[in-house]
Task: inverse folding
């Protein structure tokens, strides 16, 4: 089976589908013949995203759901299964970013990001696994981050949630390997999405630029889906040089350790200079 055929006539749910990687994956899934349930919290944004893909209108279904609400996630997944008859792929993609000094982060900040980035994934997996076990097949794709396999100073909140996503997904990948279920973790490193502009409250700051060297989001979606079709476990995007960077970290590369320490010093100096602490 080719990577394109893997998605043909499949029933897919994508959370965080109205923008960024979620939108790009939804569009690419549709191109590859899938039926896509595009999920998001903001009805107007989800509607706009669906309408922008009107060429595939017979295979698009909007879902309005707050992924931090377990009951809403459960209902959305069960309703999709009832309507479509099955769920072939679930993309737990919704998430937010957060960069700050650990000592200035509040417990409310912690709760917000854990609810959005980690609990939402747990809710989705919890609802989908029984359905997929009953079917005898299914593939769950959780969006983590490069900072879910590689640390970043002043990103303690974000890294905590994304390392959690990676750990959960990798455990389940082996736990259900003999049950016909597959699990993948998408680990975007430097992909051109609005997450660079979003704060913990979800508000967009247009003064924050997307890095000029960021990997194009449409190309990222193509690459991700190719690797999902290969049933890859951890999917780093873009693959190079970031795969070598994280492998170097896990193998204890001394120069990389020194570089990480220096980055932390530089970032703290910048925060202190700007009176952020």
Result:
């Amino acid at each position: 089976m080719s990577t394109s055929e893997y998605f043909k006539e499949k029933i897919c749910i994508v959370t965080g589908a109205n923008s960024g990687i979620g939108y790009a994956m939804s569009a690419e899934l549709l191109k590859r013949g899938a039926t896509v349930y595009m999920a998001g919290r903001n009805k107007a944004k989800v509607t706009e995203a669906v309408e922008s893909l009107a060429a595939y209108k017979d295979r698009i279904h909007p879902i309005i759901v707050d992924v931090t609400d377990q009951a809403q996630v459960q209902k959305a997944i069960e309703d999709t299964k009832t309507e479509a008859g099955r769920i072939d792929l679930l993309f737990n993609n919704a998430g937010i970013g957060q960069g700050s000094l650990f000592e200035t982060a509040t417990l409310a900040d912690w709760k917000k990001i854990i609810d959005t980035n980690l609990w939402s994934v747990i809710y989705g997996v919890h609802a989908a696994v029984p359905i997929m076990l009953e079917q005898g097949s299914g593939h769950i794709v959780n969006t983590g981050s490069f900072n879910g396999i590689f640390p970043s100073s002043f990103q303690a909140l974000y890294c905590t949630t994304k390392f959690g996503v990676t750990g959960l997904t990798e455990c389940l990948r082996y736990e259900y390997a003999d049950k016909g279920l597959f699990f993948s973790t998408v680990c975007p490193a430097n992909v051109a999405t609005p997450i660079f502009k979003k704060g913990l409250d979800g508000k967009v700051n247009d003064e924050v630029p997307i890095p000029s060297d960021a990997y194009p989001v449409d190309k990222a979606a193509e690459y991700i889906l190719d690797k999902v079709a290969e049933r890859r476990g951890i999917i780093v995007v873009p693959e190079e040089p970031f795969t070598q960077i994280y492998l170097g970290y896990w193998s204890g590369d001394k120069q990389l350790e020194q570089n990480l320490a220096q980055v932390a010093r530089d970032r703290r100096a910048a925060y202190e200079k700007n009176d952020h602490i």
Q: What stands out?
A: The helical segments are 20-31, 43-52, 70-84, 107-135, 156-175, 217-229, 242-250, 254-273.
